[in-house]
Structure formats: structure tokens, C-alpha cells
Write the C-alpha cells for this entry.
Amino acid sequence: CLSRGLGDVYKRQTTGSAIWSGHLSLKDADKLTDTGGIQFSDARGVLGNRVSDFIKPSYFSGFIEMHIEQGPILDISKEKIGVVTSIVGIRDIKITFEGAQNHAGTTPMSTRKDAFQALCSFNQLLNDRLYNVVTPESVWTIGHVKLFPNASSIVPGKVTFSMQWRDGDGERLQHMETVSYTHLTLPTICS
């Protein structure tokens, strides 16, 4: 039920627990298609008779999830077990920077409007601006980068990417979001 809780494979977070808790109907979930083109209903069908009806959430007064740590904290601290002290909030957006596609061999560096370089500049600027906002537990990630036209001899005219940030403190998460949105218009390398 809770498999792929953190994966983006169905272009949403926590698909299994969203179904189980009633926030996503199984009918709607079955229409989801993963990044490889496989429908959720087909993936469920692979399980055959190993699947039974959902247990109603109302049967429970609490929930404990045994979970392997997905980061290095326990290893670094030489601890064998940890206790979750907060659940992080997540913000996830898709961003597009547009520049000017051009021939890489003949377009001078000084006149390029390279969308990928705008992404690189944005990433560095964001790291610099978030430095005084975050704590050691705050995290942010740029992922799912797609360049257009994605060719070695053409200056990228467009880049799309995802950006996600997480924090256990709602006010700090909001501040991180504000800082991120403020600097989305700053990569002047595309203009």
C-alpha cells in the first residue's frame, strides 16, 4: 500500500497512502501512468491474487511505519535506530527557462542565451540566498532536467526542471518558497 511513497514514478507523491487514506480514489489512481508509460492498474495487476481489499483506516487509532533510513544520518552518527521527530512539508514545482537555440560552433559565448547556463546560475544563486534561511535539516533539490533540443552541437534554447524543497518547520518552508520564487526571474543569461 505504501510502496513508492517518495517516488515520482506516478507524477505525484505518496500514491499508496493517498489511496489508502481516501485522498485519491482507486479509480482515479488506476488512470495514472508512470514515467515508463505503465498504467497504475496494470502495475497492480502484476500482483495477481497477492492483493486483498484495503483495510479501512477507521480501524486504526495510530500508525507506526518501520522504515529503512534513506539518508546517511544514522551511519554518520553510528546509531542503529532513530525516532522521527517531525514530518517535513514538501513544495514541488516545475520551472521552464527559455533562451535562444543556436549553433554551438558559431555562436560566440558573449551572445549566447543558453537556457542551461540560466539553470546553473539559478542553482548557485538559490544556494547562496537560502544559506541564511535554512537549518542543517532543510533540503532542496533540482531534478528532472530536460534540455531542448538536447543536442551536443546546439545551444539549449529551453530547459525544464523540477525543484523541490522540504523542511519540518512550516514558516521556514514558506520562507524557502518565497526566496525560491523571488529568484526565478533573475537568470538574465537567457535574456
Observations:
- The chain has a mean pLDDT of 85.
